[in-house]
TrEMBL record:
This is Putative HTH-type transcriptional regulator YvmB. Gene3D superfamilies: Winged helix-like DNA-binding domain superfamily/Winged helix DNA-binding domain. PANTHER family: HTH-TYPE TRANSCRIPTIONAL REGULATOR PCHR (PTHR35790:SF4). It holds the Pfam family HTH_27. Keywords: DNA-binding, Transcription, Transcription regulation. GO terms for molecular function: DNA binding; DNA-binding transcription factor activity. Transmembrane segments: none annotated. Residues 45-149 form the HTH marR-type domain.
Amino acid sequence: MNNEIEQNALITEVIDHMAAIQQRFQAEGEDEEKKWMMMHTSDSDVIDFLKVATVQMLHVIDAIGELEPVNGITISKQYNIPRGSVSKITRRLADIYMIQFEPVPDNKKEVLFRLTPLGKKVFILHQQLHQHIHHNMSQFLHQYKIEDIRFLVSLMKDVMSTSWVQIEEKAIQINEPARILSSKVEISSESAEKNDIVAMLQQLDAKKLNRAKQLIQLAFFED
């Protein structure tokens, strides 16, 4: 019984930390990255672009820089950006001289995209940001024991391979058939996210939950 109480308490604490992490990334992620890029360039044209750039614009520049010459269909498939969004973003990037269109011989309907010299400056700067983030993440994770990192890798794989909607549907069918038939339950987005995480964490024992709690607390709640 004591183990079950501790497990439930740890699950609740981990869920609360996960919600706080999501809010932090949503609030700080894009702005922090753009600030870093502006601090690491003296090119006024690049800075002016970064002031108005969106995350998807930077992703499209990355895609073109990695694959050029490349068409919109390839960008959409490899970077999971809707084709309509790719079309709108590339037109806007062309208007501000970040990319250029290249016609395809014998195919008037298709165009390829290449970076302009200004677009290449932004691409290189964004790659430097990725390298900076990768270095910092690597340094951070090196403070943990190898068994902690193995556990974190295993946990992430489980998360990526789990369908939370399917788990929720099965739980409802097995445990609450009468309630479903008799009432409609409205759940806020925050509560739904917590329920998803609960389903995952309930599969872990108290020792692994304690590790997850320590990792999250050290990563995001200690200076």
